[in-house]
Amino acid sequence: MDLRTRIGDALKSAMKSKQAERLTTLRLINAAIKDRDIALRGEGGGEDARVGDTEVLGILGKMVKQRQESARAYEEGGRLELAEQELREITVIEDFLPRQLSEAEVDAALEAAIVETGAESIRDMGRVMAVLKGKYTGQMDFGVVGGRLKARLG
């Protein structure tokens, strides 16, 4: 079952069981996906253009990261109730993301991608990141991985 279907089913279930907070977050997810669909059509993708599961995972990952940053800002500002709301939204979004890789698994994936691309210097970083994004979207934080890769190749 694709992610859109899973999200749609979860939305219907949340409506039926009157889970207002979960429903709100699921609607935000749907809106973000539809926004990307519309942008894709505008880029010449055609009338039927829809983002695939890989892009949906990217959208969800971005939503999690935004909420983590917001929660941190709210905590620093003493707005704990808003920080808690952001964290609850993260929990709903993460229901649709694959399991995050452990540190050891990230290191192994990084090494495998370096070997696969034959990367030897910082100039090869883009190719390695492309391989990782193709295989592990939604399973690792590419901002952190980018720093590790830079240290490894630099």
Topology, pairings included?
Layout lengths: L2 H14 L3 H26 L7 H24 L3 H15 L8 H15 L7 H12 L5 H12 L1
Helix pairs in contact: 1-2, 3-4, 5-6, 6-7
If you had to describe this structure to a student in words, what would you say it looks like?
- With 154 residues, the protein is an all-alpha fold.
- The chain has two domains: 3-94, Uncharacterised protein YqeY/AIM41, N-terminal domain (Hypothetical Protein Yqey, Chain: A, domain1, Orthogonal Bundle); 103-153, Arc Repressor Mutant, subunit A.
- The protein is 77% helix and 0% strand.
- The protein is globular.
Give a brief rundown of this model:
This protein is 77% helix and 0% strand. It has 154 residues and is mainly alpha-helical.
Main sheet overview: none
Radius of gyration: 18 Å
**Oligomeric state of the chains present here:** single chain
Low-confidence stretches: none
Percentage of residues assigned to helices? over 70%
Secondary-structure element string:
HHHHHHH
What's the number of structural domains? 2
State the CATH topology of the largest domain: Hypothetical Protein Yqey, Chain: A, domain1
Q: What is the CATH top level name of the largest domain? A: Mainly Alpha
Please report which band the strand proportion falls in: under 5%, 5-15%, 15-25%, 25-35%, 35-45% or over 45%: under 5%
| Class by alpha and beta content | mainly alpha
Number of strands: 0
Shape: globular
The CATH superfamily name of the largest domain is: Uncharacterised protein YqeY/AIM41, N-terminal domain
Distance between the termini: 41 Å
Q: Which architecture of the largest domain would the CATH scheme give at its second level?
A: Orthogonal Bundle
